[in-house]
Amino acid sequence: MIFWFVGGVLIMATTIILLSPIYRARATAQQAGLAQAVFVDQLSEVDRDEFRGIISGEEAASARIEVKRRMLNESKREAAQRVPTAVTGRWLLVALAIIAPALGLGGYTMLGSPQLPSIPLAERQAERDEAIQVANLAERLKNQLLSDENSPADGWVLLGQTYMRMSRFSDATWAFGTLINRGDVSPVFYAMYAESMIAADDGIVTPKAAAALDHVLESDPLNVAAIYYKSIEFDQVGDTRAAFEILRDRIELENAFQPWMETLVAHANWLGEKLGGERVTLPAESAIAPGPSAADVAAAGEMSEEDRQAFVRSMVERLADQLAEAPDDLDGWLRLARAYSVLGEAQKAQNAFGQAERLSKTLSPDDPRRQVIEAGLQGN
Amino acid sequence: MIPELGNLALTLALAVAVVQSFLPMLGASRGNILWMRSALTTSSLQFVLIALSFSALMRSFIVSDFSVVNVASNSHSLKPLLFKIAGTWGSHEGSLLLWVLILAAFGASVTWFGANIPDTLRARTLSVQAWISVGFLSFLLLTSNPFERVFPAPLDGNGLNPLLQDFGLALHPPFLYLGYVGFSIVYSFAVAALIEGRIDPAWARWVRPWTLAAWVCLTIGIALGSWWAYYELGWGGWWFWDPVENVSFIPWLVGTALLHSAIVVEKRGAFKSWTVLLAILTFAMSLLGTFIVRSGVLTSVHAFATDPERGLYILALLGITIGGSLALYAVRAPAMEAGGLYRPISRESGLLVNNLLLTTAAATVLFGTLYPLLLEAVTGDKISVGPPFFNASFVPLMLPLIIIAGVGPFLSWKRADLGGIVDRLKWAAGITAVVLLITWYLNTDGPVLGIVSFGFAIWLLLTTIQEWAWRVKLFKAPISESMRRARNLPRSSYGMALAHAGIAIAILGFVGSTMWKSESVTFATPGDQVEIAGYELTFIGAETVLGPNYTSRQGTLQVTRDGKPVTELYPERRNYAVAGSSTTESAILSTIRGDLYTSISEPAAESAEGKWTLRILFEPLVGLIWLGAFMLSLGGILSLTDRRLRIGAPTRAQNPMPQPAFPAE
After folding, report:
1. What fold is seen in the domain B518-620?
2. Predicted ipTM beyond 0.95
3. Is-contact B503 B460, C-beta < 8 A?
4. Is the CB of residue B10 less than 8 Å from the CB of residue B140?
5. Measured between CA atoms, how close is B242 to chain A, in angstroms?
6. How far is Cα B629 from Cα B509, in angstroms, rounded to an integer?
7. pLDDT tens-digit series, residues B5-63
8. pLDDT tier at A298 (50, 70, 90 boundaries)?
């Protein structure tokens, strides 16, 4: 809101300033006399130089003649020139003073994200503390796992996933790699291993990651994550067709909607675009789409920034639509409220918490959700 | 909110620039005073909006707002404040924003300081300036928006290239850009003049101060860059003929030619067409520099943007700007009125030869820079054109220039008496010859070009001093008369003398530090001693020192001369953990005789534990390079403060017989 207020002032100011020449313009064109003024200056300069002894009297005389000749030419030229006298054409200035700010605003709405606040680091102490805490916990977990010869596989998976969330991809690769070297070769872990390697290499599927993907597909040919990254690998080596087909074939194997489909379909259609407009459609049952699953969000991590923004937004909108039709879903409202607070839309988050509070009346008094709602309504 | 306001201000600036790009131009051709005057408002407004946008970005850097992608990828919370601020222009996006800010500032200053320019010329100039603005603002917004956001925001940034985290380099881009972009206004004036079809006297009067201002900034920018390379890269070199250095040097060379030819337009009304062409070429070379650095067609220390889409956009902009203006020049220039006449031996001729040599030199550097790129594009072969090419081609072109620069100031306008000048300069020539012989005697096996350059630099220095002495009639008139004359000499004369002497002194530095350099690279353990150029250096040891966002291994070197202690030097090797890279901080003992330059690196191999690589150089006279550059800039500034309007005073022909005279163009 404040942004649109300040932005509005900026736009208004632009309009007013663009209009200002109308009030200030006087019809006196400054055409004439300026060139002559330059020559007059030059003449007095010659006088001064002569007085200072920089040029001789003879040189000065010759210079004066030259300047005067130029003055004569200039006055002939000026006499022949038409000098505007009237102030006309106000209409064009008014039109442009309206159109230009509108264009600027239009450009901004295409490029900007008005709802995003600025987030100076100093205001993020809580987040930093949390990050430090997570880092400490991860460190402890790591030491614990390293000191225990029979450390549980779950622990290593947790450590790897924590590192992934902290964007410490190489460390995640190390954690998953350690697990795999021990011989716990569930294809799911291999897929995580491959994913961490790809993330560590800025999204490039290296031969080592590709080998891990192949290994997953050998034992679990339907593994969605592996197929998704395999498609990315195909696209990166220039085989867009294979990249598209591997996704299409996998999606067509399913009869009903699956949470991971949205991402795969979006990516397949993006590839299809490059191939000249081929498309993949979701199975018909997709009408009852659930909210974003963890897998979706994980996949979203691989998208470009705009894609991800659009993706998150579409997920949230879908959830909001769904709740508008079936408003008695308490957990749904809580999910929506959380999503809005993450997106920085405090007002909408409040509304969602309000809806949740309405439904929470029937809950038992010690239900933890009551506290969440209460805290949410108070704006924490 | 702040970054979003910055983004909004930028899109508004683009819209305003669009209005400015056609309305004043239309007004000038239709004789509509209101439309012409609108340029005054739009140019100021455009500047204010871009300044607002730039401050928004700078604020985001200062408070470490990592929700701005540009901040997240180029800053870090642990960075010292100064480098957070410098980070604003440390990235591709930020530096382009600085570029358009300076562009708008030059446009606005035509409005603010240009009350004495005729309306039509000013309106057209500002419109042309706005064309450039539109091109670069749209480039910025469409391909490199500095206000792109990321959500959720990362908790910390990716840091700035630590090599760039340096005071000299923090200031290098702003000055370089002030120079590059400063030439835009001269370009706009030139294109406006071509559209108008005549060179207005006001144009002639304006082109020089603008050129001078841009040229001073470019000189400072290049000098800072070279100084940075000298003490930061750890090799003791100050110029590598690297393409990125070359593309800043080419506009400097053409700009220097423009500077000199503008004098002739101003004083004698000649060289108009030639000056217009140089104005176009200078800015064209600046744009080319921007293209080469920004498009990532080369990969070197400086080229940090690598994205073909961006490259193509700038290439298209470059094509339109240069191609369009040159086409306009081809059509309109022949119709330009010719100026004053002059004889083959005259100051005009001297300046013409100077211009030709400078542009040829610029073309040589351009060829050496682009040839490897073109070859790679056509055949795929990667070659590098290095110092041998430039030394063999560029230096010989500069030598006659140095001779003429010495003689030129003695020549009078229109026609000069060469015999008298030769007679006057016989002492300077004699001393130069003696210095040449001594240099040759000391360096019988030295490179011929080096020895000759050294002698010619002495020539330029002597003649420059003599010119001043001649002007003030030193020892020819009573001392009080000389004092009066010295006070009365216009500042531009002092500016010229200072700049020419600066060139001479810088050349002494170039030659001295190349020809008489001594170098020693050792794998040292504490206690080892190295002798170089009369100094004894003892390696005491190395210890780890903590910096704000790096750890450093600092070596201690005790310097003695003839057994007497001189100083201690502390070269460092800094390791930036966040960026995962290291920088060299050399330690330098500067004396009048030259620089004792030391740098240190990690133990060469694990087997060589405890052994440090020490690079120790003695570079005679190297300090003169920056002293010369300083004098050049100061000379430019001095000339700039001399706001007098000069007119060359031609001497009347001694011989009443009509002589064939050369037309000006």
Report:
1. Tick-borne Encephalitis virus Glycoprotein; domain 1 (2.60.98)
2. no
3. yes
4. yes
5. 30
6. 11
7. 999 999 999 999 999 999 999 988 888 888 888 999 999 999 999 999 999 999 999 98
8. low
Q: Which of A14, A82, A128 sits opposite B45 (nearest CB)?
A: A14
Closest-CA distance of chain A to residue B122, Å: 10
Quick check: helix, strand or coil at residue B310? Answer: helix
d(CA A369, CA B39) in angstroms, rounded, equals 62
Q: Is B353 on the interface with A (CB under 8 A)?
A: no
Would you say residue B645 has pLDDT above 50? no
Note whether B5 and B56 are within 8 A (CB): yes
Cβ contacts of A257-260, under 8 Å, gap ≥ 24:
A257/A282, A257/A283, A257/A285, A257/A286, A257/A288, A257/A289, A259/A290, A259/A293, A259/A295, A259/A296, A260/A224, A260/A293, A260/A295, A260/A296, A260/A299
Q: Does domain B1-157 have CATH number 1.20.120?
A: yes
By CB atoms closer than 10 A (0-12, 13-18, 19+), residue B285 is buried
Tell me which chain B residues have a C-beta less than 8 angstroms from the C-beta of A38: 116, 201-202, 205, 645
Alpha carbon distance B210, B182 (integer Å)? 7
> In 3-state terms, what secondary structure has residue B150?
coil
Exposed, middle or buried: residue A357 (CB in 10 Å: 0-12, 13-18, 19+)?
middle
Q: What is the pLDDT of residue B300?
A: 43
Which chain A residue has the Cα nearest residue B472?
A54
Please tell me the predicted confidence (pLDDT) of residue B268. 78
In 3D space, the residue among B125, B141, B145, B137 whose CA is nearest the CA of residue B283 turns out to be B125
CB A18 within 8 A of CB A100: yes
d(CA A326, CA A315): 16
C-beta atoms of B41 and A127 within 8 A: no
Give the number of other Cβ atoms within 10 Å of residue A76's Cβ.
9
Residues A352, A358, A362, A368, CA torsion sign: positive
The token duo for A62 is 């010759």
| Nearest Cα to Cα of residue B513 among B220, B226, B167, B171 | B226
What are the residues facing B529 on neighbouring strands? Answer: B538
Residue B103 or B581, more confident: B103
B67 vs chain A: nearest CA distance in angstroms? 6
Q: Where are the domains of chain A?
A: 1-24+91-108, 33-77
A22 CB neighbours in chain B (<8 A) are 34
Q: What's the CA gap between B214 and B207, in Å, rounded?
A: 11
Q: Which of B18, B42, B201 sits opposite A39 (nearest CB)?
A: B201
Cβ-Cβ pairs closer than 8 A, A with B, add up to 217
* Among the listed residues A217, A216, A218, A194, the one whose alpha carbon sits nearest the alpha carbon of residue A206: A194
Per CB-CB distance under 8 Å, the chain A contacts of B412 are 59
